[in-house]
Design brief:
The protein is mainly α and about 190 residues long. It has a domain at about 115-193. It contains eleven helices and no strands. The chain has helices spanning about 5-20, 20-30, 35-45, 50-65, 70-80, 85-100, 105-110, 115-130, 135-150, 155-170, 175-190. Helix 1 (about 5-20) packs across helix 3 and helix 9 (about 135-150) packs antiparallel against helix 10 (about 155-170). The longest helix is centred in the last third of the chain and has 18 residues, at about 135-150.
């Protein structure tokens, strides 16, 4: 009987000693074909910070569970971390959004994967609308709107950035967050477009 957790830990230990990515990928893919999806996921949990492990594990999981939104998000994130590119990440994130419209990770990766600055700002606006209490999404919206305003001299994007930062300021409790937001808002209000 094969025990996936020690087998995967052994593969990772060998990879850390030898830095041989090919051997790691071969061992993980072999293991994936021999154990259940759940056992594989559990064995991979301690290695979340290693995209080299998460990619082959979650390629297998997604292939076997094509409607598993969280698995698609984990795989898309691992792809993003390794520079796989916005097209692959965006496609997986879109599939995850369809599979589970409440999966915020899918929405975040979907917005992040958009390479056009204005379209990325518009996506973050959709995320912030879908999840109005998501401060990270609103911060990303504000940052992207400020970027579009500066690059395109767009007063509407500037107004969106200021309003969004103001909404974050209204909720901020930490003095350093309040100070940073106030400074940012004051700076944006002084922009000449």
């Amino acid at each position: 009987m094969l025990y996936p957790a020690p087998e995967l830990a052994s593969a990772v230990d060998e990879y850390r000693r030898t830095d041989n990515l090919g051997v790691l990928l071969d061992r993980v893919r072999r293991l994936a074909g021999l154990v259940s999806v759940e056992a594989l996921r559990q064995a991979a949990a301690p290695f979340q910070e290693l995209p080299e492990v998460m990619i082959p594990v979650y390629e297998h999981v997604v292939a076997n569970r094509p409607a598993d939104a969280q698995a698609m998000v984990i795989l898309a994130n691992a792809y993003w971390l390794t520079g796989r590119g916005p097209d692959v990440v965006g496609e997986l994130a879109e599939r995850a959004k369809v599979a589970d419209p409440q999966n915020r990770g899918a929405w975040h990766l979907w917005a992040l994967a958009q390479s056009d600055p204005r379209a990325r700002m518009e996506r973050w606006e959709q995320v912030a609308t879908a999840f109005p209490t998501d401060q990270l999404a609103r911060a990303a919206l504000a940052d992207n709107a400020a970027s579009v305003a500066g690059n395109e001299h767009d007063p509407l994007a500037l107004d969106l950035a200021v309003r969004t930062y103001e909404s974050l300021l209204a909720e901020a409790v930490q003095p350093e967050h309040r100070t940073a937001l106030t400074t940012t808002i004051d700076s944006l209000r002084n922009w000449k477009l």
